[in-house]
Amino acid sequence: MPKPMDQTDCRIIELLDADGRLSLADIGKEVDLTGPAVGERLRHLREQGYITGFGARLDLRALGYSIQALVRIKPRSGQLHAVEKMIQEQPRFMSCDRVTGDDCYVTRLAIADVSELDDILLPFHERAETHTSIVKSSIFEPRLPPLRPAR
Q1: Out of 3.20.20, 1.10.1740, 2.60.40, 1.10.10, which CATH number does the structure's domain 7-47 have?
Q2: What is the residue extent of each domain of the chain?
């Protein structure tokens, strides 16, 4: 079981989430620690599984993907594993969640034009039903839930 996070750990994660390029020294100034002490805490947070990786936030429009679509996918009987493999192999799917309810998967696609939906989704129609919604705008991007330090 991971060691519970304290308030300083939570603040370090929040700072990194806001700006992943902050130096250890800059984070240290914010949390009253030295840069090496912050580095040690980050190492522990990774070892404990709280931090699983680091990445960049991209502007999909700048990359040529002006449209995002949410696609609910309901595999036909006996097709669950084949459909899951198809989703994994299609690079335009940016995320995929297994869900409860009528559909088995809720996915998010990046596309340059609505006409690309047919190219991506037609191969699924032999094995699944799909329901697509175009994202008009996002209220906010993915964000951290409230972090809870141990008491």
Answers
A1: 1.10.10
A2: 7-47, 67-134
Distances (CA, A) of 107 to 5, 49, 94, 98: 32, 25, 7, 9
pLDDT, tens digit (0-9, with 9 covering 90-100), for 8-56: 999 999 999 999 999 999 999 999 999 999 999 999 999 999 999 998 8
What tokens does 10 get? 């939570």
Burial (Cβ within 10 Å: 0-12, 13-18, ≥19) of residue 125: exposed
Q: How much is the CA Rg of the chain, to the nearest whole Å?
A: 20
